[in-house]
């Protein structure tokens, strides 16, 4: 493993993953929204032309502001269809993952438990999780592992926007705290560092025992 | 229950549901692709203007021709995003479901077990399943039940297109046969006829014991 | 369909199913705990000797009183292993289901979302759900359908024991009410009445849109 | 992290985990079936008296020989209920997990996709997965993480017993090979080594992209 591309790598979970991979002496391209806006397909295509292969691709992007179903406009759907789904498809189609590499998707626990505020996110992240599952079987032939990490409540700017009183909210969580972006960063790093390859085609909840479904 | 709208009601499962509901003396609008093409949002909006309320809405539409991920074009994604996802969102936003009514989604077992040939279908049907789940909680307040039926191999023209040798294929199935569209039609009818309302927010596999996952 | 056996048929959901099937002019054996105690394997075996075939078998039984993990005794585990799991296995092994028949399991939504109070119930009902899934494939060859109904909060004595303030609790539910046992009874009846056979190997949440997981 | 107990640690996956943890300079007690037979509750209780606390507990045990449902005896059920379920419950009840520790369960992909040969294993491993999920919420308060790893086809003696022609079988797998026990060992090690704690209450398929369900 020599190089990695981290989409949405300028802050939050993406940044933490980028930092963790850099500690392995990897060359890491970490994009901010200015450099690569996944809601803009031209931006996506241009990026994929400039960076057309990698060992590790981290697909990570923020979600839309909370909106109830009946106030979501057609433009909202189309924008986030690009940002959360189609942009990632184009990246995967155009960036060659080197043999033995990794694709990590940072999705969200809303792919299993959607909610009324994050309905767009739940929908399109589910959709892309389905795509990645299928691709994991193709990629397996080239020893490329596809790992879908579905974070629960993590200590990011995003969470602070979504949750009114974070201190109170933390008390309701099984661990009494939000997860730290660095925990996900270290998890990704530990998989790469130990060259764990048979972990593929999997959705991994990363939520501090917060979700209620077993399977 | 007096009237129903069956999208994709001119053949296959949609037609069988429409016929079953008509046997309950309901007034049924069943659309063919000529009358309502869910891949065309103008067509969808026009339809929703003409038919802006109903007791029962059946969301049903065919899927795309089989295509592997790396040959799917941006236009393919956009077309089927309309057909399998956005068109349904617009219908739900614009057609009022009368209190005590029903929304049935005819999705597919690919929402749980996607496959490389039906990757588009798996993605967008998962996405809409997520949306309907969220909406089921809102609709519950008005005693409207949302039921997602996920058919496995059913005896439709579609299946004949997808499966090369249907006779051989049937022998591999637990029941030794495809499901009949009428079985789904009768299932929908039986729910409506018996006014079963507490069945809501649920995905029901309808696949003759073919799938392998328990939950 | 001429006859049915309803285990735990003297009250609650079991009774409602028994009544619904009787309305189809079926001969229904409905057992109370006095007649058949599924926690007592001798009782189970004796019953299965006397009633060794049927068209429809309804596997239904109450759960244990709420207990946290660290206060559950070995005897508790063993008793409810019999009641919720092994007794049902013995019934299925010894009662012949006639060709074209049905097996309905009334499990619980705790098979997907267990909780600390109902940990025994969650465990053994999950286990039996797994068994029934496997058997559904064998039974399919004889056109016998296996349907696992997983009720959420239903208006039974059991629920009143578990929930302190039922009136307050109901207000928190999406439909603003508990489900009625008759709704499940009618659902079972409607499947049998319409001879819906391709619905098999399935878990059907019956919870008024209360659960949060999509799939 | 100073010490670990690995149940079933004398061969296969258990041994690989024990070796991996030892490479972290941990003191590891790894039990063979002679030392601790989880199908024998006396053996389990005696062990838990001698070893009544640990930082890391690895719950791992072999499964029963393949048997179809109708040939499983009551004694089979009771034996493997002990081995795969009740023995683990007794261990968890009697061995104190130190604050900040870990419980790893090595279950199997049959908890999601049971099959007719491994019906006992599917049932009781599902049941214990349900228990561990519930406990993960309690343990979270003490910063103890509970992680359920559900292996697919791994290169163990067990797999060689179950699969007739392993070479042919490997060709059917997405990665063209079985997983190695060391991969799971390294995975467990990497989590412990990096002190990843927010990963808890989760089932992680470890199957080389072999399973078909997304979620």
- Spell the H/E element sequence of chain A: EHEHEHEHEHHHE
Task: Give the N-to-C terminal Cα separation of chain A.
Answer: 32 Å
**Uncertain regions spanning at least 5 consecutive residues of chain A:** none
Describe the largest sheet of chain A.
6 strands, parallel
Rough shape of chain A?
globular
Helix-residue proportion of chain A: 40-55%
Which two protein chains have the largest interface (Cβ within 8 Å of the partner's Cβ), and how many residues from each? Answer: B-C, 47 and 48 residues
Task: Note the total helix count of chain A.
Answer: 7
* Strand portion of chain A: 15-25%
The total of beta strands of chain A comes to: 6
Q: How large is the radius of gyration of chain A?
A: 16 Å
Label the structural class of chain A: alpha/beta
What order do the helices and strands come in, and which of them pair?
4 copies of one chain form a homotetramer.
Chain A (H helix, E strand, L loop, with lengths): L2 E4 L5 H11 L4 E4 L10 H10 L2 E7 L14 H21 L1 E11 L12 H22 L4 E7 L5 H6 L3 H6 L9 H13 L8 E5 L9
Parallel strand pairs in A: 1-2, 1-3, 3-4, 4-5, 5-6
Helix pairs in contact in A: 1-7, 2-3, 3-4
Could you explain the architecture of this structure?
Chain A has helices at residues 12-22, 41-50, 74-94, 119-140, 157-162, 166-171, 181-193; strands spanning 3-6, 27-30, 53-59, 96-106, 145-151, 202-206. Chain A is α/β, with parallel strands linked by helices and 215 residues long. A six-stranded parallel sheet of chain A has the order 2-1-3-4-5-6, sandwiched between helices. In chain A, helix 2 (41-50) runs parallel beside helix 3 and helix 3 runs parallel beside helix 4. The mean pLDDT of chain A is 97. The C-D interface holds C 41, 69-70, 72, 74, 77-78, 81, 85-86, 89-90, 92-93, 110-111, 114-116, 119, 122-124, 126-131, 133-135, 137-138, 214-215 and D 41, 69-70, 72, 74, 77-78, 81, 85-86, 89-90, 92-93, 110-111, 114-116, 119, 122-124, 126-131, 133-135, 137-138, 214-215.
């Amino acid at each position: 493993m020599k190089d990695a591309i981290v989409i949405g790598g300028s802050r939050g979970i993406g940044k933490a993953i980028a930092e963790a991979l850099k500690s392995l002496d990897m060359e890491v391209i970490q994009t901010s929204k200015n450099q690569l806006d996944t809601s803009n397909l031209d931006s996506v295509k241009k990026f994929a032309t400039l960076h057309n292969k990698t060992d590790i691709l981290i697909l990570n992007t923020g979600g839309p502001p909370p909106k109830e179903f009946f106030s979501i406009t057609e433009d909202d759907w189309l924008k986030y269809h690009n940002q959360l789904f189609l942009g990632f498809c184009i990246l995967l189609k155009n960036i060659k993952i080197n043999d033995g590499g990794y694709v990590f998707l940072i999705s969200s626990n809303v792919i299993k438990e959607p909610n009324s505020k994050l309905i767009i996110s739940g929908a399109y992240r589910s959709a892309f999780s389905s795509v990645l599952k299928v691709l994991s079987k193709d990629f397996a032939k080239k020893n490329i592992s596809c790992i879908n990490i579905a974070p629960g409540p993590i200590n990011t700017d995003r969470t602070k926007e979504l949750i009114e009183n974070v201190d109170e909210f933390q008390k309701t969580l099984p661990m009494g705290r939000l997860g730290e972006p660095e925990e996900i960063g270290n998890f990704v790093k530990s998989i790469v560092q130990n060259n764990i390859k048979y972990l593929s085609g999997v959705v991994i909840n990363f939520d501090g025992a917060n979700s209620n479904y077993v399977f």
